[in-house]
Fold Armadillo repeat-containing domain-containing protein.
Amino acid sequence: MKMWSCTDPAVGALRNLVGAVSPDSLVSLGVLPRLVHVLREGSVGAQQAAAAAIYRISSSSDMKRQVGEHGCMPLLVRLLEAKSYGAREVAAQAVASLMSCPPNARDVKKDEKSVPNLVQLLEPSPQNTAKKYAISCLLSLSANKRCKKLMISHGAIGYLKKLSEMDVTGAKRLLEKLERGKLRNLFSRK
């Protein structure tokens, strides 16, 4: 099979195929390296379709592990910076799902851009549909002290206060976790 040219229709067709063909069959056909190539080199539309295909393929923990081993996590984190709301949402959805696999969560934790990119997705505008996935990812990362400090320094508390008022799922819980850590640090200083 030749490497795809990065055209939106080809990747979109693959994304649609994922529901009809078993993920194991697709992986055995060498789809993952091609999706990685599209995430790395494709247009934003093709990257969005590739991220959606990765999300759909990654239904089992074994498949999530394989996706992570192919180097998808840093590419999906980079896609969180896209100008397109749709691309950011699909990337955040894929990252949130893939983080249930511990090695993938470690990759996200190590990536310097992950926390700042995820915090930016907390923007409370109605067009931003990625915020619920960003909250899910940040909740997973909030157990790590370094990540928690990064969230606070990048303005997560301000966003989360607005999202809590809007009753966005998980916002209040994440806000409490971040503020609890802030209070503890305040009292531990001399």
Q: What stands out?
A: Confidence is low (pLDDT under 50) at residues 1-6.
